[in-house]
Write a structure and sequence with these properties.
The complex is a heterodimer of chains A (334) and B (277).
Chain A: H1 2-11, E1 16-23, E2 26-31, E3 57-64, E4 70-73, E5 80-85, H2 87-101, H3 107-114, E6 116-121, E7 146-150, E8 155-159, H4 162-171, H5 179-193, H6 207-212, H7 219-224, H8 232-235, E9 243-249, E10 255-262, H9 283-302, H10 312-316, H11 324-333
Chain B: E1 10-21, E2 24-31, H1 34-39, E3 47-52, E4 56-61, E5 72-77, H2 81-88, E6 94-101, E7 114-120, H3 128-136, E8 144-150, H4 159-167, E9 171-177, E10 187-188, H5 191-198, E11 205-210, H6 213-226, E12 233-236, E13 252-253, E14 256-257, H7 258-261, E15 264-266, H8 267-270
Parallel strand pairs in B: 7-8, 7-11, 8-9, 9-10, 11-12
Antiparallel strand pairs in B: 1-2, 1-6, 2-5, 3-4, 3-6, 12-15, 13-14
Classes of the chains: A alpha/beta (334), B alpha/beta (277).
């Protein structure tokens, strides 16, 4: 594995080799300087790999001001190899793909996405807030170019695409997996399923229907009471895709750019219009909206649930109210 | 880069501006590219984003009718930073236009029906092309009642057209203001009260309503009292919008994206999500 990654870094110098690295006591996706930095046995990263396709801030186009303003489209992308993406994040990328590459394809996203190679790794030590086992997102059969599973002294690799196959053949030392190694992989996955501390008291298919009848439930008010409207839950979410668009003018005042940046429905001004009207002016409405986005609206629009159970929101939430699992379970119980 | 970038506006030129009220300007806008100008088709109720480069972009209903003119018209109320910049534009100045977006008022479906159109303040903007379309094909529709309310007489947005509207056959225009002035001889009353007094019949009728949330709230109550059903009441929603493409999710109200599923909705489609003012 070390050799594979070091060879990639060495031979694919023109490409960004990104992987999971330790950062203080947490993990992040970042550019790898060498294979030694790569941590494949991690629980969860602070931010999801979504940032490589939908960056925190990106230029949409540049403009020149003056008597005759002109526009210049900007779409930049570097080839990127992402190493160590967990199955739930791969599922989340599949949802982002549905959002950005289906109706009205988004060129900025597409360009970055097309140039990305995803090397996944099975999550064998889930974080304490994750509930992937309840959402069928603990493992995935699609969405990756390669998928690694640590079976102790070696990795079992599943090949998802021709691109992944080519990469593997060219840069890694591989051989056909034995039956016992494949059984070892299944055993690892099965063991990991038992490690999840949070679970849903319903099947994922039941969630949209549950929300359908829960609009007036007092659960939203009770749960949202301690909300700080800080937006942490939506900023760390791998399926949150909302963005704001703004103009920025250079200090010379003759040019500028239009950019987009992450935004989130839990922030107070998200639905506020210029007249001062705010369509979700209290935290109960914002909290409910987020739960409906995660459990119903995205499912109806794209056929995929808007939550993959990664637990990042719950880990980030100072008020300890953000986990969709908790709210869905409460709604189910009430 | 192969794919057309839907975030890139068309460049356009201000042809002329008209001060409709102290804070509303009509912008007449010509798309610079003749081919795009010729193919830019739209229907009453659709909207477009206007860009004041350097300040940003905001959505506005297109208040003109297609085919009448190549110019697009927008009634822009100065309320925030983008609209302030748009108000500063002068004939010859460049701006950006992105659109048309959204659905439209299904006027073909309303053929033969009595139309009740209720607008408050700048809420009259998306209703103007509806009224003008109905008047253009006057025989296709039943009676037309327009109730237009504003804060003061000066704030009635489409004053220059009132004479035409009033003189059209089977058309009644009722103006009302919250506060009159020394020249005002008309009604001083709230829109819902005027509606209650006029009491149009719900039989074979469609009510289209647009205005501030508080007006919508009380007017809906009166319409329901008159017997209008939720599928007979149509509105066009305003929402925070950033892309118009169903991506940014700013305009997500309930399960609807205003930019994709709207902005035109029947009350039946959205009654669950209309928050109480």
């Amino acid at each position: 594995m070390i050799n594979f990654v070091d060879t990639l870094i060495e031979k694919k110098a023109a490409e960004e080799i990104v992987g999971v690295k330790a950062s203080d006591s947490k993990y992040i996706f970042g550019k790898l300087a060498n294979a030694g930095e790569l941590c494949l046995n991690y629980d969860v990263t602070l931010l999801p790999p979504k940032k490589y396709f939908l960056p925190q801030r990106e230029t949409v186009f540049k403009f020149k001001l003056g008597d005759k303003p002109s526009l210049e489209p900007v779409a930049e992308a570097k080839s990127t190899i992402l190493i160590g993406v967990h199955p739930y994040d791969i599922k989340a990328i599949e949802l982002c793909d549905a959002v950005f590459t289906t109706i009205n394809p988004d060129p900025n996203y597409l360009l970055k996405r097309d140039k990305a190679t995803i090397i996944g790794t099975d999550c064998l030590s889930p974080n304490p807030k994750a509930f992937c086992a309840s959402l069928d997102t603990a493992t995935t059969e699609s969405g990756f170019d390669l998928m690694l599973t640590d079976i102790g002294d070696s990795y079992v690799v599943a090949i998802g695409t021709a691109k992944g196959d080519k990469l593997l053949k060219k840069y890694a030392k591989t051989r056909e997996a034995t039956q016992s190694e494949l059984a070892g992989r299944d055993g690892q996955r099965k063991k990991a399923l038992g490690e999840y501390k949070v679970s849903l008291n319903m099947s994922p298919e039941e969630i949209p229907g549950l929300l359908e009848v829960s609009w007036g439930s007092p659960v939203f008010k009770e749960k949202s009471e301690p909300c700080l409207s800080c937006g942490s839950c939506v900023m760390v979410c791998p399926t949150c895709v909302c963005f704001d668009v703004q103009d920025d003018v250079a200090f010379t005042l003759d040019k500028g750019e239009r950019y987009r940046q992450w935004d989130g429905c839990m922030l107070v001004d998200f639905a506020k219009v210029a007249t001062g009207e705010n369509f979700r002016d209290d935290k109960e409405k914002r909290f409910r909206h987020r739960m409906y986005r995660k459990g119903k609206y995205l499912q109806e629009r794209y056929g995929k649930l808007g939550c993959v159970g990664c637990g990042r929101c719950a880990l980030a939430c100072l008020a300890q109210i953000a986990s969709p699992a908790e709210t869905f379970n409460l709604l189910k119980a009430s | 880069m192969g794919l057309e970038n839907p975030f890139l506006p068309y460049l356009a030129t201000i042809k002329s501006t008209v001060e409709l009220t102290p804070d509303v300007k009509l912008l007449r806008v010509e798309l610079e590219d003749a081919a795009i100008r010729g193919s830019f088709d739209y229907k009453p109720g659709q909207f477009a984003f206007l860009s004041a480069f350097g300040e940003g972009e905001a959505p506005f209903g297109i208040v003109s009718l297609p085919r009448h003119q190549d110019d697009l018209e927008f009634a822009v109320r100065q309320i925030g930073t983008v609209t302030r910049a748009l108000h500063e534009l002068e004939p010859g100045d460049t701006l950006g236009v992105r659109g048309p977006f959204g659905n439209y008022f299904p006027l073909e479906d309303y053929a033969g029906k009595n139309m009740v159109i209720i607008g408050g303040g700048i809420g009259m903007a998306p209703l103007r092309p509806v009224i003008n379309k109905i008047l253009e094909q006057r025989d296709n529709y039943g009676n037309l009642l327009v109730i237009n309310g504003a804060r003061t007489p000066q704030d009635l947005v489409f004053r220059p057209e009132f004479q035409t509207w009033m003189e059209a056959p089977r058309t009644q225009l009722e103006l009302t203001v919250d506060r009159g002035d020394e020249h005002w001889g008309g009604r001083v009353a709230l829109v819902p009260d005027v509606l209650r007094e006029l009491a149009p019949s719900p039989d074979n009728a469609i009510a289209i309503i647009c205005g501030p949330p508080i007006m919508i709230h009380f007017t809906l109550a009166v319409l329901k009292g008159l017997g209008f059903k939720d599928d007979q009441i149509v509105t066009t929603l305003e929402a925070k919008m950033k892309c118009g493409l169903g991506k940014c999710a700013r305009c997500n109200v309930g399960d609807k994206y205003v930019c994709q599923d709207g902005p035109v909705f029947t009350l039946e489609q959205i009654s669950q999500f209309l928050e109480q003012p």
